[in-house]
Amino acid sequence: MDSSILQDSQSNAPAKPVQREHSECMGILRPIRDALDVLNGKWKLPIIVALTFGEKRFGEISREVHGITDRVLSKELQDLVMNGLVKRTVTDTFPVKVTYALTPHSESLQEVIDSLRKWGVLHRTYLQNEDRKAS
């Protein structure tokens, strides 16, 4: 997305409001909505982050993504597989071994995840500073 839409390119200050056409607004919102539909909820990105450290079995993911239930993890993994972000591999052994790994397509999320992490750190610092001001 063109960063000039949200901020002045000469500084980090918010851009002055500009009158925009409805079609331009929809051209910005539609792909954002599409992305949020795929990554919705509080579990998909943590699952993806857990898998950035390599292929994992269901139980390993469950232990790394604290607070998620097995039922929710199963559903979220199905959604991620359906959207082409995670690959599920079944190895014909006894017992059957099922592993999950990121697909090459999921690499396109790296910049998004890095940006969210940086913003999360910034926001946490902001809130901590606001708490100090209120005290």
From TrEMBL:
Family matches, as Pfam families: HxlR
Top-rank taxon: Bacteria
Keyword Transcription regulation attributed? yes
| Record domain HTH hxlR-type: where | 25-128
Please give the Gene3D superfamilies that the UniProt record associates with this protein.
Winged helix-like DNA-binding domain superfamily/Winged helix DNA-binding domain
- Keywords, sorted A to Z: DNA-binding, Transcription, Transcription regulation
Q: Where is the composition biased (Polar residues)?
A: 1-13
Query: Segment Disordered: which positions?
Result: 1-20
Protein name, per record: Winged helix-turn-helix transcriptional regulator
